[in-house]
Amino acid sequence: MNPTPDPALESIASRTLSRIHSRAARIGIVGMGYVGLPLALLFSEEGFPVVGFDIDESKILKLNSGESYIAHLPGTEVQAAQRRGFAATADYAFIQAMDAVVICVPTPLDEFQQPDISFITRTAAAIAPHLRPGQLIVLESTTWPGTTEEVLIPLLESGNREGLRVERSEPASGPTALAAPPLYVAFSPEREDPGNNTVARRDVPKVVGGIGPRSRELACALYSSIFSRTVPVSSPAAAEMTKLLENIYRCVNIALVNELKQLCLRMGLDIFEVIDAAKTKPFGFQPFYPGPGLGGHCIPIDPFYLSWKAKQFDFRTRFIELAGEVNMQMPYYVIE
Predict the structure, then answer these.
(1) For 29, 98, 312, 319, which has the most beta carbons within 10 A of its beta carbon?
(2) What CA–CA distance (Å, rounded) separates 181 from 179?
(3) How many CB atoms are closer than 10 A to CB 56?
(4) Angle 27-217-85 (CA atoms, 0-180°, nearest 5)?
(5) Cα(22)–Cα(25) distance, integer angstroms
(6) What angle do CA 192, 193, 199 make, to 5 degrees?
(7) Nearest to 100 by CA among 180, 236, 227, 217
(8) Which of 171, 203, 166, 202 is nearest to 186 (CA)?
(9) For the whole model, what pTM was predicted?
(10) What is the rounded CA–CA span in Å between residue 288 and residue 314?
(11) With contact defined as beta carbons under 8 Å apart, do 208 and 220 qualify?
């Protein structure tokens, strides 16, 4: 049996939802990199008041001077956003004024090819003291399934000053559980493809996994205001896994074609001719092309997040490990 909705909690969520629908919601984007800055500009284009947060003072100075440091984003877009009220800051105290906070910080690998989520944990610790009831916090940084629930939420709950508790699918137990001011949390993986001019940024569907029904509703409403389509899934972990699957798919297929490239050279065949012929098939085939290794921000990194997490479940992701081995050997092969 579903629990009876608490009128006070419904009212808080309704106020946030109303502000999103009216474009009055103040949006804070933490991390002004190749994901966060384009997202901030999208929200600004739709009339939302937007503040960009970053610990890099040089980025703050450039943005507030109307400059861009990302090749495919001209400074004119930043200047247009400024005229609509966009500003950047390194002061996390302004988080308290935001209605929604979207975290877009890096998630690299360390020197041992293991996930480094220190940017997420430091960001959570920095914003937690400034949170207030009714805010929506969305993590976009690519990470292993479970990060939002196992890492982000405990930091947000333990670090805030108002006893905020994140809404969950099942209500917490205890006499003070219903009295705790609510915070809403979701995960929505970034799907940036820098330099891609064939698909408009707003036309890339946005996957959303909320920690509870109100979180999912608020996050979907937030992203529906700037994206043509939102795709709700059952949980943050499902959304986290979705992003990893997308990049693992590419990583494995790139490894396959890198290996076939080497074989074709020995056989006296042109791999590009073969690929061009194969891609004429109107179903069941998507072309991937060989290269000197793996490039970009995500594909060389993200698959290892899942292979690392799989070890906690006594499971070995052999396809991921083999693809990584093939792709990491390609630079040496090319040099030879």
Answers:
(1) 29
(2) 6
(3) 14
(4) 15
(5) 8
(6) 100
(7) 217
(8) 166
(9) 0.91
(10) 32
(11) yes
What are the pLDDT digits (tens) for 309-333? 999 999 999 999 899 889 888 888 8
277, two tokens: 């012929």
Q: Which of 3, 2, 46 is nearest to 21 (CA)?
A: 46
Which residue is associated with the tokens 């930091």? 155
219/25 Cα distance (integer angstroms): 12
Torsion of CA 238, 244, 248, 249, to 10 degrees: 50
Backbone phi and psi for residue 226, each to the nearest 5 degrees, phi listed first = -125, -15
Q: What is the pLDDT of residues 193-236, one digit of tens each?
A: 877 788 888 999 999 999 999 999 999 999 999 999 999 999 99
Question: What's the chain look like in SS3?
Answer: CCCCCCHHHHHHHHHHHHHHHCCCCCEEEECCCCCHHHHHHHHHHCCCCEEEECCCHHHHHHHHCCCCCCCCCCHHHHHHHHHCCCEEECCHHHHHHCCEEEECCCCCECCCCCECCHHHHHHHHHHHHHCCCCCEEEECCCCCCCHHHHHHHHHHHHHCCCCCEECCCCCCCCCCCCCCCEEEEEECCCCCCCCCCCCCHHHCCEEEEECCHHHHHHHHHHHHCCCCCEEEECCHHHHHHHHHHHHHHHHHHHHHHHHHHHHHHHHCCCHHHHHHHHCCCCCCCCCCCCCCCCCCCCCCCHHHHHHHHHHHHCCCCHHHHHHHHHHHHHHHHHHC
148: amino acid identity, one letter: T
Catalytic option among 104, 220, 251, 298: 298
Query: What is the b/e burial string over 65-75, where b = at least 16 CB atoms within 10 angstroms of the residue's CB?
Result: ebebbbeeeee
Query: Has 298 been annotated as catalytic?
Result: yes
For residue 242 the two structure tokens come to: 């979705």
